[in-house]
């Protein structure tokens, strides 16, 4: 792994988070009935969850795009993707087995089956988790080497 590959990962992670944030904002502005339903984990409406999570995703995306500190971007991506992992594990633990509504009703507008969108979001989550932790590990090793 080298610094160019890390920069590419951070940029791609930022792009993915930017796209999912925009999807959440667009979906939350709609009138779908599910937006009024409470999230099974957080207990607040999906509309509010989309706004809150979309804001976090947008913030992390902007850090990935504009911060000169690679470790900050990687750390925030690791934190956010770990949060998403624990959320998904929570859904499994409470027996919620419907596809994640991570992109809201935008998948309906684009005629993407919910299961396909859910699978794509799992792949993106795995990419963000593995990439961010690998980046942090590489940066840690580099720092240790320079310190020795």
In brief:
With 148 residues, the chain is mainly alpha-helical.
Report on this model:
This protein has helices at residues 3-28, 46-66, 70-93, 106-109, 114-147. With 148 residues, the protein is mostly helical. The protein has one domain (3-147). The two termini are 20 Å apart. The relative contact order is 0.16. The mean pLDDT is 90.
Give average pLDDT, whole number.
Answer: 90
What is the CA-atom radius of gyration, in angstroms? 17 Å
Distance between the termini: 20 Å
The coarse overall form would be: elongated
Count every helix, treating DSSP H or I runs of 4 or more residues as helices.
Answer: 5
Low-pLDDT residue intervals, each spanning 5 or more residues? none
The count of β-strands is 0
Please bin the fraction of helical residues: over 70%
> Pairing-aware structural class of the strands and helices?
mainly alpha
Task: Walk me through the topology.
Blueprint: H1 3-28, H2 46-66, H3 70-93, H4 106-109, H5 114-147
Helix pairs in contact: 1-2, 1-3, 1-5, 2-3, 3-5
């Amino acid at each position: 792994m080298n610094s160019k590959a890390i920069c590419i990962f951070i940029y791609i992670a930022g792009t993915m988070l930017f796209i999912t944030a925009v999807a959440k904002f667009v979906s939350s502005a709609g009138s779908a009935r599910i937006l009024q339903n409470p999230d099974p984990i957080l207990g607040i409406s999906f509309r509010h969850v989309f706004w809150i999570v979309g804001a976090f995703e947008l913030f992390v995306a902007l850090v990935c795009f504009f911060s000169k500190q690679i470790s900050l971007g990687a750390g925030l991506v690791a934190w956010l993707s770990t949060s998403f992992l624990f959320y998904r594990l929570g859904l499994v633990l409470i027996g919620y087995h419907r596809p994640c509504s991570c992109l809201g009703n935008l998948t309906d507008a684009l005629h993407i089956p919910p299961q396909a969108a859910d699978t794509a979001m799992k792949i993106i989550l795995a990419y963000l988790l593995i990439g961010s932790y690998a980046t942090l590990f590489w940066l840690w090793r580099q720092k240790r080497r320079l310190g020795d």
